[in-house]
Here is the input.
Amino acid sequence: MLKVLAFATILMTHSLSAQSDIVHYLLNISIPKSQELLKIIGNPSKIEVPKKFHILVWNILKGQRSGWINDLDKMTHESEFIFLQEAKLNNEQLHYYNRVKDNYQWDMAQSFSRGDNKASSGVILGHKAKGLAPLVLRTDDTEPGINTPKTAVFNKFKIQGSSELLCVVNIHAINFVRPKIFKNQILKIEKVLKNCLGPILYAGDFNTWMARKLEILEQSASRLGLKAVTFKNDHRTKFTRWSPPFDHIFVRGIKVKASYVFGEITSSDHKPLSAYLEIL
Here is the structure.
């Protein structure tokens, strides 16, 4: 109890910036500098994205549950893009990304690292085609308590038989904040996507367990001309039975041929989303 009171006293007598530094020191957390946000692993196996392709979207809970790699292998054997949130570059995950590095390039948007080994956490986008413009979009706001930002990763790709470029974003949205703070992140990504003239693929864990957050996201999607992918077997993860789902896929200039939620998967606290898509 004395330690807790001492910690509370330190926080109350320091500025917000100093409080954040103290929390990070006590929890052994490091926040990467702007020039360190992007980490790339592997090599793309293609120059262009085919018109028809498969994607998988999954928050993997930092790989904390057993069996997630076997599940991922089964679900992604034909995937052109793999959107992972709560990825962590520990030995187990690095081994996986390096094992498939001859087929995929992995763009990691690092949020923070923790522990003596400083394994980075964040979102990671796996893609078979060569990316043209990888970019990390980090929130200016942070999650309360641990004071860590959230990230999204953006990239552009050539499309087979087309002069247009495919814009892709993998997001893990800020969570335990007021909708106004959530909106800041969504608008930051919207600003980037407004510059995309061709098809768009925007997916991830949006943390839209609150109706107002989903409304903000849908309004942004509407301004961008994006359509939400729907699922007949909609077993997407929710905070409560009546809450909106956390995870979404949005597309523009892309036809959805089929979509599926892997409701049987238990190796994370999120259910993976799968979609077969065709660029129009």
